[in-house]
Design a protein that fits this description.
The chain is an alpha+beta fold. The strands form two sheets. The chain has a three-stranded antiparallel sheet with strand order 1-3-2. Bound molecules: zinc ion (ZN).
Amino acid sequence: MTTPLELARDESLNRFRSWLRARSLPATPQRVAIATVVLGADHPLSAEEVVDALRAKGPAPGTATVYRTIDVLIQCGLVVEEDRHEGFRRFQPVRDDVSTEELLCTACGHVATLTVDGLASDAAAAARKAGFVSVRHRLVVYGMCAACRALRESQTNEAL
Ligand SMILES: [Zn+2]
């Protein structure tokens, strides 16, 4: 069973990988391990807590490496910084804070924004009819992006 927290974490990890890929940055095992801990946390973590969580599973990266990866996560918009005046920073995963409509390629993880005029108000109206007050919504269309389809087609043609 996948929990909603794991589902949110995996979605964020896919976005992180796409973001890295789009910038030709490697999704190193270390980066992915750090991102998995930060994005899967149910409370804001400090860099030291991230190191501790990784150390429990094996060789852990240093705090500087953790900070560098977290900075990338912040640039991606997947993590926000929190200052509780403790003398160090904590990092909170961003989850579904805004309504989104997206196209997600299940082959390469590419995420694109889907724009449907009136969708947000239609969804809110339908929710209201069901006695529901809509706060935000999320629509993900899963499929294959144009690049992956073209690749798949060229491979099929070669096989013929
Ligand atoms: Zn694709």
